Every structure is written in structure tokens, then in C-alpha cells.
Predict the 3D structure of the following.
Amino acid sequence: MPLYLNDEQQMLRDTARDFVAEHAPPAHLRQLRDANDTNGFSRDLWKQFAEMGLTGILIPEADNGLGLGHVEAGIVLEEIGRNLSPSPFLTTAVAAVEALKSTPHAPRWFPGILAGETVAALAIDESPKHNGRIAMQAERAGNGFRLTGAKRFVAHGHVADLILVAAKTDRGTTLFAVPNDAKGLTATPERLADSSLASHLAFEAVEVDADAVIGEVDQGGTLLARLLAAGRTGASAELLGVGGGAMDLTNAYLKERKQFGVPIGSFQALQHRAAHLYSEMEVARAAVLKAQQRLDSGQDASEAVAVAKAMSGLATTLAVQEGIQMHGGIGMTDEYDIGFYMKRARALAELFGDANFHADSLAQAAGY
Amino acid sequence: MNQDLDQFRQETRAWLEANCPPSMRLPLRSEKDATWGGRNPIYAHPDQKLWMERMGARGWTVPDWPKEYGGGGLSAAETKILREEMAAIRARNPLNSFGISMLGPALLKYGTEEQKLEHLPKIARGEIRWCQGYSEPNAGSDLAGLQTSAEDAGDHFIVNGQKVWTSYADQADWIFCLVRTDKTSKQGGISFLLFDMASEGVSTKPILLISGNSPFCETFFDDVKVPKSNLLGELNKGWDVAKYLLGHEREMISNMGAGGIDPLVEAARKGVDPILRGQIALFQVRARAFAAMSERFIDELKAGRAHPAQPSMMKYYGTELNKIRHELLMAAGGSDALEWESEASIHGAAARAWLRTKANSIEGGTSEIQLNIIAKRILDLPS
Ligand SMILES: Cc1cc2nc3c(=O)[nH]c(=O)nc-3n(C[C@H](O)[C@H](O)[C@H](O)COP(=O)(O)OP(=O)(O)OC[C@H]3O[C@@H](n4cnc5c(N)ncnc54)[C@H](O)[C@@H]3O)c2cc1C
């Protein structure tokens, strides 16, 4: 498989680019924020994603989805990133679908996702840094389990219809599908720097039936790994979009803004930084595509995924930092969009492990 | 199609297994272990000759060149498989050659049929070693400012002038050389000449480098007679050939940053402080990502989809990365890595390699020049 988008994928990209730019440009995020919207995203927009078939991008054709892969999901996510569109696409259509795929939960949740009615949230992290440690306990109780503990940084946690929860069981990790109205579950949404909402979830003896278990009891590690690989790769693609969007804004500004009677883009000090940034973004793009292709081909992708998440985090962080600096004073104003890019980049860089976390995982895998 | 490729892979694997000498599957210990061929070849080990000749006979020193010019006639997919299979057994490059990585592509594009038939097969088999006569004392980054002149003398040119930083000029058999054939136009007055270094009037003087080696030279031309049939491309249009060749040179140099971070990982395994460990791990992220970029770049190039200025990005990123890699290797090695002549340090291999990498972002056009090119030609920033 050559490491570039084929013709069909490029067509999908053009479609996704037009669709997202039209329906959810940065102005959409600004509107939601200014209205102090408490959902965190627009249900209407999610419906439109469904009408385009996009919510079923990773759902197998046998389950009425498009049956496409992570490359295609990434194409959509990149446009979401470029437009800073608040959307449950990553959690629902990518990470949750990947975890539910070919389990008995698929027929229960896929129709709602395909219809743009169901939103999923991922309850994975328990501390401010993603570290893979799970303290939440799930004890056997009645004909099911009792969940006790807390999760944080759960995007859409307060509005999701379905919450995927990772918990400790006797001999391993188990993944649960918990409905939002479960007794004893409370979600406290907090507004984050990027205007999105992420919840603290408290589980006080939340009882779920045995059939809430996704896959097998104690065997959730594999599913969780699948969910995380999809989530991390997806977040990397969204990061590319954020970084690319910031870079495009900045390059346009370099051509248009004049000082000393010439466009500032003619100054070599800025040209070199713009060219360096371009190089970092291109390298990140290759790393992300590599991870997507490996996931789609079923090869071991753990290293490629770690590289993709770390590299896209590094490159996009540079893109937004350079973006603000090269915009000068206007870059610091709320009115101008570049600041929104900086905020979203930080949130995505943190999601499912930052660059240091993934670099550390590479080092451990290499034995140092 | 895939079945054919599978079969090609099987056959290639078997052939390499049978023909690549075990000593050629060990990493190079120093620059002297590299095979360059030429009229007066120097081999640190007899297996180098064997390996070069076996690969040359199959055209696999230049797998994707046409067979009639000494190449292997392989498709892009087959070439990729050959490279993968060579990497799998850590086979050494059978032949290092400016003929392969620089002049060859330019000859294929701009050469006459006679020129191709005369030069390409010899390049493929490592019989003639080439050097590059581009830079002059007053024409480095501003290469088109070169002054070495070639005067029309009927059926030949008379070349006079001086080149500098000519890598391996003292060991090369032939030179590809930029000369001025018209003083009234800067870029439009340059021509591209090929000539024998044994021609009367050519002399070289090695220059000692900070790495303790002296691979490059000052090169002097004093009334050198060059037949007109040795002009590559059209008269006064040599700048096009020069730029095309530079694209390939940059591509070659960029490869140095890709893959092969094993020595660094090995050093880290022996134990380094946590801060250095973190730096190495973050470097590993970039190195792996760049390996993916190299793969993407080659795939795009083969499919004709790469931006023509993309080699500048590859050259810039790959060479800066390679410098960081060697800084980290030196840091991980500590005082061991500083030993300059001891047997244990393989005669200062680490330190000499570290110093050599400092040239990566200078040779073939400096990093600053690559950034200028990216800014202007890819990002379209104003002048
Ligand atoms: C190991 C090695 C091998 C080489 N082999 C060969 C060879 O075989 N044949 C050959 O012909 N040449 C060879 N070269 C020469 C090489 O191509 C030149 O050294 C290179 O192009 C830089 O030119 P210069 O050394 O004159 O530096 P200069 O052009 O004098 O540059 C000095 C500094 O100024 C910067 N600079 C110059 N112009 C600009 C600008 N417009 N914008 C910003 N910064 C600028 C440069 O980036 C550099 O940092 C080799 C060089 C090395 C180091």
C-alpha cells in the first residue's frame, strides 16, 4: 500500500472538507461558546453527519455502515480539526465503534449511531495525566457488577447515551457499556480551555447487568487497547487538522500583513520558521497515515500509533505557537481565530497520552 | 500481480541469502569500509569486491534503471521489495557512488543515447568513480555565481578555473562539472561538462577536515581539453541539469536521518540518566516519523505526485535529525565516545562520525538554502 491517499480517499477528503467547512466552521464553535451552550456540541450537526453516512464510517457494511477504515475516519477527523468543530465523532464513530465492533453490543448501539441519535463517551482516565492505570473496581453483584470509583476528562460525559467504562475485575480489566441513566452515576461537566465540556464522573455503587460487559469479563484489555489505538490515531488526525488549519491561517497572514512597506512573509526569519513548521507537519502527516494504514491492514500498530500521537502533538503544538507569534498582537485577540487553534491543540495533545507519554512507551518497548 | 510480487520476494530473499557474504551484513565500522569502486579501487575487505560485482552483474546496484544501461529493470514495487529484503538481513550498500545517486539520473534524463551507453553501465558496475565539480571559492550557496570557464575551441572546450570542496576528487576517475560558457547571463551562461580526471591540466589537493579525514579537495583546471561530445544537455542550459541533479543529491543526503537508530537504543539500554533517556525517546519519535516520511516521499516520487521542491524538505529534516542523533550518541557514550585513536573505539568511529554529520546540513545546499526553497516554492511566500 503506497503511503499516500488513493483517488477514492482524496474524493472523500474533498467531500468532507466542503461539508465540515460549510456546516461547522470555526464560527460554529464561537457561536456555541458565546451562547454558553451546555451540550458541548450541536445535535443537529450530529444528525447531518449521519445523513452523510459519516457516523457509520467504521461500522461494517454487514451492520449497515460504510465499512471503511481508519484512513477514511482520519480524513473526516482532519477536517473536524481544521474547523475546530465540536463533535462526538471521535468518541462515538471511531473509538466506541471500534470497541463495540463484532461484539453482542454492536446491534444494540450501531443503529442509533448510524441514525445520528446516539452519542458515546469514553470513561478511561482517572488522573490529570493519561497513564493507563485503572483503580475503579467492578465487583460481582446480583446478576451483574457494581462499579465504584471516579473518571475524569470524559468528553460528552454529561450528555452521552452510552458510556464505555474501563474497570478492574478479579483477574484483569473489563470494559462496560453503561447507560447514562444508571443509578448512582453522576456527571459533573466542566468547561475546558478550548470551550469544550469534559465531565468528572462519579460511580457510587452503580449496578449494571452482566450483559453490560463488552466482550469477556477480565479480557477487556484487548478491547481497551483497540479502543485506545483507534482513539489515539483519530486524535492524531484531528491534531493534524488543527495544526494544518493554524498553519494555513498563518501563511495567509504572512502574505497579507505589511510592515516596513513589504509583506512580513518576505522576511527570511519568518520564512525559515514557516518552512520548518511545514516540514514538521509533513513528517507528522506521514506518521499518522502510517499508523492508520497499519491499523487497517491488521498489522501490529502499537509503535506506529505511539509515534503518530506523539509526533502530531509535537508538530501541532509548534504550529499553534508559531501561529500566534507570527500574527503579532492580533493573534492574542479573542476576535481572531488563531487562539482557538491553540486551545484545541492543547486539549487534543493531552487526550489519550501526550508526546512524552508516547515517547516513554517507545523507550519501554525498546528496552531502555 | 501480488502473487508475482510474492514470488519475486521469495526469489530475492533466496538469492541474497546465497550471495551476500556474511561480512557484508555487518554495520560499517568506519568510512573506510564503504565500497566506492573505480579504476583504482580500495577495499578494506575482499568481500566488498565480491558483493559489489555480484550485485552489479544483476543490475541491482541500480535496480530501477533500464537493463540496457546496466540496471535491473525492476518496477517501483520490486525495487521496494529488494530494499526491504536487503534491510532485513542488514546487507550493506554494495556500491557508494555519486554516479548512481547524482549523475545517473541526470544522464538518464538529459544524456544522448551514446552518452548513456558509454557511462551508465560503468556506473552500475562500479568501474568508474565520479566526483562533482560544482562549488568554487566564491560560489557556494550562490552556486550560479561560478566562474570556471570553458572556451569554445572548435571541436573541444578549453577549461580553466578552480573548484573547491570536491569530495574525493583525488580518487575519482571522472568529474561532472559546471562551467561558464557565457559571461553575460548568470544562470543562463552555465554548461554541464563531463571529463576524465586524468586529462592533462587537472590537479587536486586534499583538504583536511575536522573529522581527521580528508575526503575533499581543491581542484584546479589549467587549459584542460574537453571534447564537445562531453557536453551534457544543451550549451548554456547546464543550470537545468545542475538543479535536477541537486534534487537527487538532496534525496540521497536526506536518507541519512532515516531509520537505523539501533546504536542509540543500544547505548540507552546500557543506562543513561533520565533526562537523556527522555531526549532519546523524543528523538526516536521524530526518527520513526521521518522514516514514515521517507517511505511516503519515495512512494509519491515514484507515482509522480511529489512536489518538485519536496527533496529540499527531506534534505533539511533528515540532515538536522542526523545531527541530533549523533549529539545524543556522543552524550550517551560519554568519555568512551571521545577516544580518538584507540582500538576499543574503532579508531574514534563515534567521534569521527559525529563530526562528519555536521557537514550534512552544509553539503548539497545548506539548511538555510533548503528553507529558502521551501518558503518560496512550496509555501509561496513573497520575495
Ligand atoms: C562534506 C562536504 C562535501 C561536499 N562535497 C562537494 C562536492 O563533492 N562537490 C561540490 O561541488 N561541492 C561540495 N561541497 C560544497 C557544498 O555544496 C557547499 O559547501 C555548500 O553549498 C555551501 O557553500 P559554502 O561552503 O560556500 O557556504 P556559504 O555559501 O558561504 O554559506 C555560509 C553560511 O551562510 C549561509 N547563507 C548563504 N546564503 C544564504 C542565504 N541566501 N540565506 C540564508 N543563509 C545563507 C549558509 O547557509 C551558511 O550557513 C561539499 C561540502 C561539504 C561540507
